[in-house]
Specification:
two-stranded antiparallel sheet; 59% helix; 7 helices; elongated; 3% strand; 191 residues
């Protein structure tokens, strides 16, 4: 069986895994598809090699997973400072105002829409005679109420998008911009 790189894989004519191929075989044959590296050492193009080389997924000899080697980079401190910026923004009055505007629209809208939907379903089950009452020709109350469900869905979506555009998007965009400006130096970006 051949892989995408035209190397044999488990066919009995070579090592059983690509790791054995690199570590156990001839370095010249291991680098046949990848080329030779510095000082005759074969380069390795297996995307999982970095994970295995870092100790991820390996056992420590007792059958338990080996402890992961901590990174030499000091990202924990900058990550904590970035988290502090986000907490500061979350506690700001501007953020609370955006969340408040969102809730003042969504909660009542959800209650009205859910009540209308449940009322339609309950009426269809509890009062089939009412739903079968003809309105005009073959059109009955149930058909009008069902079409009303679609209409109110579209109206609610339109109202939500309009409310977001007029009442929240500008303030949310300003918050996002401020947050990015505050975190840029902490992430190593330029000012």
């Amino acid at each position: 069986m051949r892989s995408n790189h035209d190397r044999s894989r488990g066919g009995g004519d070579g090592p059983e895994s690509s790791v054995e191929k690199y570590h156990g075989g001839d370095p010249a044959s291991a680098g046949a598809g990848a080329g030779a590296g510095a000082a005759g050492r074969a380069e390795y193009d297996d995307p999982w090699y970095d994970a295995l080389a870092s100790g991820w997924g390996e056992l420590d000899g007792t059958g338990a997973p080996a402890p992961v080697v901590p990174s030499a980079r000091r990202e924990d401190e900058s990550a904590d400072r970035v988290a502090d910026v986000y907490l500061q923004v979350q506690r700001s009055t501007a953020f609370r105002e955006v969340r408040s505007r969102y809730r003042r629209f969504v909660v009542p809208g959800l209650v009205v829409f859910f009540t209308w939907y449940v009322g339609y379903v309950v009426t269809a089950q509890a009062a089939p005679g009412l739903m079968q009452r003809p309105v005009a020709g073959a059109v009955n109350v149930a058909m009008l109420a069902g079409l009303g469900q679609f209409l109110t869905t579209f109206l609610f979506t339109w109202a939500y998008a309009r409310h977001a555009r007029l009442r929240r998007d500008r303030a949310a965009l300003d918050l996002r911009w401020d947050t990015q400006e505050l975190t840029r130096p902490l992430r190593g970006g330029e000012r």
